[in-house]
Amino acid sequence: MRKRLEFIALYGLAWVVIFQFFRIIFLAYHYKKALELPSSLWAASASHGLPMDISFAAYILAIPTLLMMFTGQRWDWYRKTLLIYTTIIVSLITLLTVVDLELFRAWGFRIDATSLHYLETPTEAFASMGAAPVWQLVLLLIVLIFLVNRVLHTIIRRITGAFSRSPLLYTIPAFLVIAGSLIIPIRGGFQLAPMNESAVYFSDKSFANYAAVNVPWNYMRSVLNAAYSSENPFQYADDNEASEKVTSLYNRNGITEQVIDTVGKKNVLVIIWESFTAKAVGSLGGLKNITPQFDQISKEGLLFTNIYASGNRSDKGMVAILSGYPAQPTTSIIKIPKKTASLPSLPTIFKTNGWQTSFYYGGETEFANMKSYFLQQGFDRIVDINDFDSKDMNSKWGAHDHVVFKRLIHDLDQEKQPFFSTMFTLSSHEPFEVPTKTVIAGNDPEHLFLNALHYTDESLGAFLREAQTRPWWKNTLVVIIADHGHPLPETRKDKPSEFHVPMLWLGGAVTATPARVDTLASQTDLAATLLNQMRLPSGTFAWSNDIFKKGRQDFAYFAFNNGLGWMRPDGFLVRDNIGGNITEKNGALPQQEEDLSKAYLQSSFGDYLKR
To answer: Where Mn(2+) is bound, by residue (predicted)?
Structure first.
């Protein structure tokens, strides 16, 4: 009996040590971020993460403990069963741990149920890993699986080999009680609230909190609970009170300054540039000579210098741009067609009022469930990867940007006017493959990314120069905007810089003198701004704030994985929704602004749940 108790204790303890070892690997893999923290926070991440490690170790122990009840007379079957069980669990957990290493670099949060959405389009999911050191990660995975299995298998063989006969009268009730008592470490102790992320979040440094999280626990919680919850997890005040605060941000009655020609119906072309971060745009104070074409053409139109993306993924950016709808921090509305069917959208409004509508993308529009949204929202024609020759493809995503631009201008020459057309670029997405000679040298992810931006910039410049020779140009508004920002380049490491994106209006339909528009605004504000300029109804876009409306309140909200950013002209704050900490702050924002940011999150997520 003693050996059986010893085995359960040692097996559980071994898993706790393994989880701490995996945490060290996470810190080492992201050593640049780890070195930005004082070393005391490394130890603090380990100590604060320990209860979550123990919790998941207890989950793993449940089956071995229950099976132990029946080992009183024979236990060879137990050893064999546990060896197989351990091998499977080790393989799954280690796979999650290794995949999380690279996904955290790309996404900025620990792996969760979001990853399941990308299994629907495995080619694109693999393409997202294109810039990752895949073979090194595979080797690490193999080595870790071997080492962890070796340790646990040794424990299993040695201790179970020392078992002796024990009456079932003892083993069954004893291990039934022990199995039941595992609920205590599983829920994290005797406190009222069970184990959750808040229990391990302890710092105003986000990376220290992320390091404390146990990957398999986080993933299991996300899969079982978060994706299916119908309750608003961001309930900070009475709903009516929160709604009143948010409503006060929007001025529906002001006069709009007109910058677009109002005679007749104007063509609109929206170019959505993948990962187009302001940090790489010289004309916005970013790196020089990465986007020289954009910097030059920005002098010919209205350059919006203070725009922030609503979310950190393409699927969230699409809804923010086309429907003026804010991103969700823990999910994405585009994944649920019955919800997106209730959204207003630019293509729907334009189509209803007589415009021809089209969408162009060189990749698979099925990715992240975007195609269902595009079909719902009234695009007459969708051109995607299926409409291009294989010789024009990169190895991962689809047709190169210059190929899609060429198809776009050919089709617009034939298009009945007025038209509303959208193009989504892809070459500046990982793995950053471009079909031209390298201009920004370097094989690390940052330089590959910058080189890809430079290629798309050249493709865009060539397209615009050709478009300016077409008869339809003089009657057209071109809007260039990003789907989202990017953590790279690491010239600035504050969260708002990751969401700061360019927006440019140009074309023959623009009547305003070329200028820089410094108004603080969001991606979501494009919808109302554009429709009001076109004298089309914008009242259904409740979350969109006309940039040119007199008396508007200037603000921008953005969401990342269970966090929010709140931008005001005189400062900003970044809040971790799990720990409730303000992780970044700049300027003299009063407490009312934090309350307002939480009201915005509560109301916007509540709106999402009701759709």
So the answer is: 274, 483-484
Instruction: Give catalytic residues, as residue numbers.
Output: 314
Q: Does 274 carry a binding-site annotation?
A: yes
pLDDT bucket at 252, cuts 50 / 70 / 90: confident
Structure confidence by residue, pLDDT tens digits, 214-225: 999 988 887 775
Phi and psi for 462 in degrees, rounded to 5? Answer: -65, -40
pLDDT band at 228 (very low <50, low <70, confident <90, very high): low
- Residue pair 550/534 in contact (Cβ under 8 Å)? The answer is no
Q: Are 234 and 605 in contact (CB under 8 A)?
A: yes
Domain containing residue 364: 241-547+554-610
* 413 known ligand binder: no
Q: Looking up tokens 């060290």, which residue turns up? A: 24
Q: How high is the pLDDT of residue 119? A: 58
**CATH code of the domain covering residue 525:** 3.40.720.10
Residues 211, 293: one domain? Answer: no
Which two three-digit tokens encode residue 69?
């009840």
H/E element, 25? helix 2-29
CB 482 within 8 A of CB 502: yes
For the stretch 462-519, pLDDT in tens is: 999 999 999 999 999 999 999 999 999 999 989 999 999 999 999 999 999 999 999 9
Report whether 483 belongs to an annotated binding site: yes
CA distances 289 to 70, 142, 428, 483, Å, are 71, 42, 16, 21
200 and 163 within one domain: yes
For the chain, the domain total comes to 2
* Residue 295 belongs to some domain of the structure: yes
* 207 shares a domain with 306: no
Provide the pairing of β-strand 515-517 with 356-361.
unpaired
Conformational region of residue 373, where left means phi above 0, alpha means psi within -120 to 50, and beta covers everything else = alpha
Share above pLDDT 70 across residues of the chain, in percent, rounded to a whole number? 96
The mean pLDDT value for 348-369 works out to 92
pLDDT of residue 118: 60
Instruction: Express each pLDDT in 379-411 by its tens digit.
Output: 999 999 999 998 998 867 899 999 999 999 999
Same-domain check for residues 378 and 486: yes
List Cβ neighbours of 453 (8 Å cut-off, separation of 6 or more).
Answer: 275, 276, 280, 290, 291, 428
Q: By the 8 A CB rule, do 278 and 500 touch?
A: yes
| Cα–Cα separations (whole angstroms), residue 577 to 209, 347, 594 | 12, 34, 12
- Residue 161 and residue 261 in one domain: no
Nearest to 334 by CA among 348, 351, 346, 320: 320
